[in-house]
Specification:
three-stranded antiparallel beta sheet; globular; single chain; hpI Integrase, Chain A; mainly alpha; 3 strands
Length: 232
């Protein structure tokens, strides 16, 4: 706006505006044993929710808890976010691991059981299941249950969003190409995705073990092209 004013002789001089220093990325993430410890303390339906976030990096409030039964296709082994249903507005689809598929099958059966009891269709994947005034309504949040679970296993202060960071890190370390990992987690820019791709002490220790095992980083391995003869 200031530049437009300057170009139209409405502003005599452009001020110098310094950008604020970008805050360092939060370093919270879950090692597998820590995640499993927290998950075990949650009730079954919330175990499914955190497993989805941990596996695919989906945002808990806007992408996991809003899932409908119609977005799960157990026959095809897929789960999708419809266009407009994510922070970026883009649709997304993932193929289910055997662990996630089994947990979803059990969760869908729990929802259908409540539907039969109430005599009405429940479209949500994560409705309130226990008896009460909210039974059948979609779960909006479970921050208190999450905080209690983390505290119980000595991990107070961990956020559910740390599951998203963990998923980004795990996908890359599993050998999934970055462009595919970003499609799964829903990151649009490489810069933001890199802030989630955290290097842990375990990663550094693994690098040290590889070096000790004979991987000399100072030696350049011969290129496969060195032995190729081009003819013609």
């Amino acid at each position: 706006m200031l530049r437009l004013g300057y170009e139209r002789d409405k502003v005599a001089k452009l001020p110098v505006i310094h950008k604020l220093t970008e805050a360092p990325p939060r370093a919270g993430f879950f090692e597998r044993t820590d995640f499993e410890a927290v998950r075990r303390t949650l009730r079954p339906d919330l175990q499914v929710a955190v497993t989805i976030a941990h596996s695919y990096g989906w945002r808990m409030q806007s992408e996991v808890l809003t899932l409908a039964l119609s977005q799960i296709d157990l026959g095809a082994g897929t789960m999708r976010i419809n266009p407009g249903g994510s922070k970026t507005g883009e649709g997304r689809i993932v193929y289910l691991s055997s662990e996630v598929k089994k947990m979803l099958e059990e969760q869908i059966e729990r929802v259908r059981a409540v539907s039969r009891t109430m005599g009405r269709v429940i479209p949500y994947l994560f409705p309130h299941l226990p008896k009460g005034r909210l039974q059948g309504e979609r779960i909006r949040d479970f921050r208190k249950s999450w905080a209690t679970a983390c505290k119980a296993v000595g991990l107070s202060g961990m956020l559910r969003h740390d599951l998203r960071r963990t998923a980004a890190r795990n996908l890359i370390r599993s050998g999934v190409p970055e462009v595919v990992s970003m499609r799964i987690t829903g990151h649009r820019t490489r810069s933001v995705f890199d802030r989630y791709n955290i290097v842990s002490p375990a990663d550094l220790q693994d690098a040290a073990r590889k070096m000790a095992g004979g991987h000399n980083l100072g030696t350049v391995a011969p290129s496969p092209l060195d032995s190729v003869t081009v003819t013609g």
